[in-house]
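[stage:ingest] chain + small molecule (guanosine-5'-monophosphate)
[stage:ingest] validated
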Amino acid sequence: MSKSDSPSIFSMIIDRKIPADIVFESDSVIAFRDINPKAPVHLLVVPKNPDFQNVSELAAASPELLAELVATAKKLADEYTGGEYRLIFNEGASAGQTVFHVHAHVLGGGLTEDSLGD
Ligand code: 5GP
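[stage:predict] done
[stage:export] tokens:
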């Protein structure tokens, strides 16, 4: 799959070109609230490096960064959902992926079946 030349919507959030409700930021990872939440708590955890379109690419190229993403998701879930949560990576348009800059969905705080996806 070819990478787009234009920055992803998440790169624009990272660069503060568009606003977001940012809940965590480190040198390598950012997390913010999803604009269209599917659960009372719906966070997106995103590596700042825009080179990876999906979790498989990230796992193959940088397992350490993937581990950091998962650890960040857990830390935020402890803070926002009491530590029980659903962690989702969509991969591919037909699976519901709309932003091709890898990101984890952290869902919690009262899940319903709708929280599984669209
Ligand atoms: P995907 O469908 O690629 O797995 O997830 C992309 C997510 O990004 C969707 O849940 C969508 O609501 C969210 N999203 C899309 N654009 C924006 C935006 O501009 N700001 C925020 N905070 N979330 C966004």
